[in-house]
Automatic annotation (TrEMBL):
Function, as annotated: DNA repair enzyme that has both DNA N-glycosylase activity and AP-lyase activity. The DNA N-glycosylase activity releases various damaged pyrimidines from DNA by cleaving the N-glycosidic bond, leaving an AP (apurinic/apyrimidinic) site. The AP-lyase activity cleaves the phosphodiester bond 3' to the AP site by a beta-elimination, leaving a 3'-terminal unsaturated sugar and a product with a terminal 5'-phosphate.
Name assigned to this protein: Endonuclease III
Tagged with keyword Cell membrane: no
A Pfam family that the UniProt record links to this protein: HhH-GPD
Enzyme Commission code: 4.2.99.18
Cofactor(s) named in the record: [4Fe-4S] cluster
Top EC category: lyase
Domain HhH-GPD: 39-185
Any GO MF annotation of the entry: class I DNA-(apurinic or apyrimidinic site) endonuclease activity
Catalytic reactions of this protein: 2'-deoxyribonucleotide-(2'-deoxyribose 5'-phosphate)-2'-deoxyribonucleotide-DNA = a 3'-end 2'-deoxyribonucleotide-(2,3-dehydro-2,3-deoxyribose 5'-phosphate)-DNA + a 5'-end 5'-phospho-2'-deoxyribonucleoside-DNA + H(+)
Segments crossing the lipid bilayer: none
Gene3D superfamilies named among the record's database cross-references: Helix-hairpin-Helix base-excision DNA repair enzymes (C-terminal) (1.10.1670.10), Hypothetical protein, domain 2 (1.10.340.30)
GO BP: any one term: base-excision repair, AP site formation
Length: 222
């Protein structure tokens, strides 16, 4: 079975498990989605969804975010990881958006030029706010793509390129979310029985299963 054939079977399983695909991060429009995704780095979606309602009530637009200033932004997002730098980035990005006309537009160069916005964040906004085909890769997707033999998994860029090559373009926006949900529900990073997994059990190589399920020996102390 080649990679495309394997991806087609994986897609059928994911479509069956997740026929409805909600967006994990609560938001109101493209700008608040951008903010939520930027906050989600090294933080759970659950935690982001806990802090954003009050932030979005106070600053639902770039103009209002600028008015808050970095210190007050920090008060709203203190519980998320890397909060001080994220507060500064949100304020700087809001200024950049205002300088560019005040709107979030579906343009890769514009989005990736904003403070605190990398390719993954831009990809999420493009796919979920504007329905532009994209394949954002997070740690769940990189882990599963490697387990399933769809990518070598050494870099996010390589994983994205490999997944785009095996999944049809029209499925990218749904497929990346389905893989994230599957990773959280069925395919965790630690203490995972690959032989009992609905996908790993047949998609992972015997070598991969053996490597992941063999207890790692701890180095002896001297």
């Amino acid at each position: 079975m080649n990679r495309k054939e394997k991806a087609a079977l994986i897609g059928e399983i994911l479509d069956d498990l997740y026929p409805e695909i909600p967006i994990p991060l609560d938001h109101r429009d493209p700008y608040t989605l951008l903010v939520a995704v930027a906050l989600s780095a090294q933080t759970t979606d659950k935690k982001v969804n806990q802090v954003t309602p009050a932030l979005f009530d106070a600053a639902p637009t770039p103009e209002k975010m600028v008015e808050l200033g970095p210190d007050r932004i920090l008060e709203y997002i203190r519980e998320v990881g890397l909060a001080p730098s994220k507060a500064r980035n949100l304020w700087t990005a809001a200024n950049q958006i205002i300088d560019a006309g005040g709107e979030i537009v579906p343009d890769w160069e514009f989005l990736e030029s904003l403070a605190g916005v990398g390719h993954k964040t831009a990809s999420v906004v493009m796919s979920q706010a504007f329905d532009v085909p994209a394949f954002p890769v997070d740690t769940h997707i990189q882990r599963l793509a490697a387990r399933w033999g769809l990518s070598n998994g050494t870099t996010v860029e390589r994983t994205e390129r490999d997944l785009k090559a095996v999944f049809p373009r029209e499925t990218w926006n749904d497929r990346h979310l389905q893989i994230i949900f599957f990773g959280r529900e069925y395919c965790p990073a630690l203490r995972h029985d690959l032989t009992a997994c609905p996908i790993c059990s047949w998609a992972a190589t015997k070598k991969r299963i053996r490597e992941e399920m063999t207890p790692k020996s701890r180095p002896q102390r001297r």
